[in-house]
Amino acid sequence: MLNFSFVNPTQIHFGEGQISSLTSSIPQDAKVLVVYGGGSIKKNGVYEQVSNALNAHTWGEFAGIEPNPSYQTCMQAVAMVREQGYDYILAVGGGSVIDGCKFIAAAALFDGEPWDILGKGAEVKSALPLGVVLTLPATGSESNSFSVISNKDTNDKLPFATTLVQPQFAVLDPDVMKTLPERQLANGVVDAFVHTMEQYLTYPVNAKVQDRFAEGLLLTLMEEGPSVFGQDVSYEVRANVMWSATMALNGLIGAGVPQDWGTHMIGHELTAVYGLDHAQTLAIVLPRMMEEQKEPKRDKLLQYAQRVLGLDTSDPDAAIEQAIAKTEAFFHSVNMPTRLRDYGLGEEVADKIVAQLERHGMTALGEHQSVTLDKSRNILLRSV
Ligand code: NZQ
Ligand code: ZN
Predict the structure, then answer these.
(1) Contact status, residue 272 vs residue 155, Cβ threshold 8 Å
(2) Could you tell me if the CB of 241 is within 6 A of ligand 1?
(3) What are the extents of the domains in the chain?
């Protein structure tokens, strides 16, 4: 096991009716800016529950954070925070709203041009406190310190990370999932699955606890993921999917193990250039990354094949082929396409995305930094 320091300070309020816990989770004297997206929270009762819980607080609202939150929109919220003196941010939404709020919380107190936080990795020295009401289980953003922001003018989609923007608390009520469109439910299951794979499918370091936790998450997502669609979904299925997504990227399974994230870096470029949903890009890239990295990932691929998929590994090469095919079949089982051509895209994608990767310095991806631009090009060409 590798050395690590681990803390996850986000308090989780999990379960039905927990939105009411906002009343006591946010300091009474805070001036709260409630930030949300395109308005889904106004149709499903979440907005009403939030306003009831904040009845005795002073608060205002900022609407319109879009999927793949833009720097441009976030800066409008930053102006509002500065002009009106808000000192607490409450994100109500999915990963995009939460990521946007992390950037707003940091940018509001940033001395200088806030884009530098993303474009130049400028140090964040302070941030406003942040709380979350999660409406879409997928990214894990509700209890981690990462954020990904897009600049629509320049086709940049760039991450930043600081514990200063880690949410103080997150409310996870599985009932909010009832109004999620099937496309977003599938996105959530696939994103959580791929987050787990990015931290599990590398090379063994004898980290038994992390491996078994990761395998538990993969199994849960494979068992419950396909059942999360439709009208008659049980509370238990929703609860298990929601908690898996949070646990997949809250730091726990990634502590003390090598991590990959190559699929994500290529995926972010596909979103920046072609506008595909985040998880749609992952379902295309991951199976091809597994093929390309078959040798360096061999031991873990066999472990995955045996323990998660229950495959016979007496013929290791055949087992690895089957494991990759079954991973892709799992994505299909939640109605998630796995090819560029499913979105009308073809070989032209390779040059464009490789140029983006080069521009962003993503020239040595993966746990061994061995995924060169040529390998990324192969992955993309094979993804057609
Ligand atoms: O905007 P509203 O009206 O809320 O609608 C949203 C949006 O259109 C809708 N939605 C959310 N909850 C709903 C709902 N519709 C009905 N009922 C509900 N309960 O869903 C749509 C998509 O929302 P979005 O927040 O964009 O999705 P997701 O949670 O998948 O977030 C994706 C973003 O997170 C980033 C991605 O790159 C992408 O920008 N990621 C963030 C990470 C992190 N911070 O750790 C890690 C991830 O790997 C990822 O990169
Ligand atoms: Zn992701």
Answers:
(1) yes
(2) no
(3) 11-175, 181-382
* CATH code of domain 181-382: 1.20.1090.10
316 lines ligand 1 (CB under 6 A): no
Is the separation of the CB atoms in 363 and 372 below 8 Å?
A: yes
Q: Which residues of 36-49 are buried (b: 16+ CB within 10 A; e: fewer)?
A: bbeebbeebebbeb
* Nearest ligand to the C-alpha atom of residue 188: 1
Atom of ligand 1 nearest to the CA of 94: 25
Q: Which residue's CA is the closest to the ligand 1 atom numbered 49?
A: 139
Question: What pTM did the predictor assign?
Answer: 0.98
User: What does pLDDT average to in each consecutive run of 10 residues of the chain (384 residues)?
Assistant: 98 98 98 97 97 98 97 98 98 98 98 96 98 98 97 93 98 97 98 98 98 98 96 96 98 98 97 97 98 98 98 98 98 98 98 97 98 98 98
Which residues keep their CB under 5 angstroms from ion ligand 2? 191
Confirm or reject CATH 2.40.10.10 for domain 11-175, answering yes or no: no
